[in-house]
Automatic annotation (TrEMBL):
PROSITE patterns: AMP_BINDING. It comes from Microbaculum marinisediminis. InterPro entries: ACAS_N (IPR032387), AMP-bd_C (IPR025110), AMP-bd_C_sf (IPR045851), AMP-binding_CS (IPR020845), AMP-dep_synth/lig_dom (IPR000873), ANL_N_sf (IPR042099). Residues 5-59 form the Acetyl-coenzyme A synthetase N-terminal domain. One of its GO terms (molecular function) is propionate-CoA ligase activity. Residues 516-594 form the AMP-binding enzyme C-terminal domain. Belongs to the ATP-dependent AMP-binding enzyme family. This is Propionyl-CoA synthetase. PANTHER family: ACYL-COA SYNTHETASE, ACYL-COA SYNTHETASE SHORT-CHAIN FAMILY MEMBER 3, MITOCHONDRIAL.
Amino acid sequence: MSSRYHEVYESWQKDPEGFWAGAARDLVWSKPWDKVFDGAQGVYGRWFVGAECNTAYNCLDRHVFAGRASQPAMIYDSPVTDTKETFTYAELTDAVATLAAVLVKHGVKKGDRVILYMPMIPEAVIGMLACARIGAVHSVVFGGFAARELATRIDDCQPTMILSASCGIEPGRVVKYKPLLDEAIALSRHKPSTCLIHQRPMETATLVEGRDFDWAEAVAAAAAAGEKADCVPVAATDPLYILYTSGTTGQPKGVVRDNGGHMVALHWSMDGVYGIEPGEVYWAASDVGWVVGHSYIVYAPLLRGCTTILFEGKPVGTPDAGTFWRVIAEHKVSALFTAPTAFRAIKKEDPEGSFIGKYDLSHFRTLFLAGERADPDTIQWAEKMLKVPVLDHWWQTETGWAIAADPVGLGMLPVKYGSPTVPMPGYDVRVLDESHQPVEAGKMGAICVKLPLPPGCLPTLWNNDQRFRDSYLSEHPGHYATADAGYKDEDGYVYIMARTDDIINVAGHRLSTGGMEEVLASHPDVAECAVIGIADSMKGQVPAGFIVLKSGVTKDLAEIEREVIQLVREKIGPVAAFKLAITVGRLPKTRSGKILRGTMRAIADGETYKTPATIDDPAILDEITVALKERGIATAD
Ligand code: COA
Ligand code: AMP
């Protein structure tokens, strides 16, 4: 089939508002929009201004009324607890309406914020949708973050209520969430009035009298009394959720997602990008704590009337490298979306793909990869093993859906390894030089999107229009700067090569090296430090911290290194995967005092590098090389 991509992209270019108005017609609006796009509203304009809608209604009730009541909406598959549970659209709607009644009873109103700090269990999805149902704004915090990170988010979005669970399950250990939650509330200036705690069988959390309530008891009481909350119409421009993501400092950015534009963009993407029909089974193997989980575990599959899979496990070790194939076969999954790191983990454990033959994968059509650079080796291995198209696509927490992809629903374009393919309708992607001019094909530059951003992308940062302007819009006037650098080729394919800031990507998780440096610098023996991301064959990148000790410190170096590693785990969380701290005598710097992190990374990754002309003392690079070699890290000589 030849692709309709160019035709559809041009139709969007000719009439962006007509394009998105057309896409919006598939959804239910309680009040139509006055304007599809109003450039005079918000920071760079707002979508579907004047309209009212409810995202949860469009995800659930709409399908119940349209005849999908008995179709599975969500399948919870948890190899770590040996549990499987299916919720039909009717059951999920009911569960969401009942929990929503509990939230209302505890005083949660339209516009109030609710934080979720939850493992991958159905209650997390039900909690998110219950907020959406009553117009409350959810903010999910990934379970791998430490108490201090949670406290920062509590202070920034000031939730009325927190939804949590007694524990999460990581291979080989139970992660007790409740002590972390209690510590976060103790650390935060803002105190939520209520916490609703889901007690899991493997860990019973102690509840704080008057503040904490048992989830199951509250829901059972509401169900017995027949209490259900109705969907509350909200403005299309009202926030649906806030999702914090790493910025260049320890203070994360609260990415805001609206209701109307988000529904329209995600609904379009299920067809245009993923080529998925209503009724099909779609699986995003991620976590609801990340944007992939928000968009493609929860909202998009349900908006499309699909069955979504909620998988509580890992690609390997739960129990083996065949888990993904088992889930695909058992639930007749049509498309899987995950991060390349998951496939690198499977490939490492089962390079011959010996588990694949054990399962019937005949329903499986497409594998989608995103979240980090998809290396050609991994793509080719997956293609060979699965014998289906393996498609890289590129996006960010900020955009909420693909900026560039190979649009299956419009007809696939040829795959070029190393490229996530072409810009999606809505995105006018430009590669700019330092003077804001487009560079020619094949030349590297800053990858930007000409404003306005399409529906679904962030309209601003929570309570911080100025930080939004400063972080994304000021560098290249009239454009949104993605903070990714790369190029476009003659065919318009986009290539994402590097971040332009200090964000690193560890196992598909986005982390700030600046945030880690803040933690290292807080150690009493550390005078200065630098954290860089170094290449890792499984996780893509892992952080490496270099510390210079204060003069006069006599403590054992190994002891200090262990302490700073522990400090990052305590302050940021295990997700930082910070396991390498190296004490050095000095850090390489320019004469003006700027630490040469790029050169250090090149040395650690074994790349050939040029000694920067501005370096203060070139001999320090040799010291860094020796220190890395001592830790067994391949370096460039
Ligand atoms: N709660 C508590 N701790 C968590 C956690 C959670 N929800 N998620 C991860 N962690 C912990 C892990 O247990 C690990 O701790 P450890 O240092 O004690 O081993 C640490 O955080 C780092 O986790 P991770 O980077 O995920 O490494 P891993 O070795 O546990 O797993 C993969 C590696 C590749 C299997 C895993 O990252 C994976 O499946 N990734 C692909 C899918 C994905 O999550 N993508 C996200 C964006 S699409
Ligand atoms: P996150 O906000 O966590 O989704 O991380 C977004 C960042 O991850 C992007 O800005 C890129 O740096 C990187 N990224 C995501 N997808 C890809 C991809 N397909 N190829 C290369 N980098 C990617």
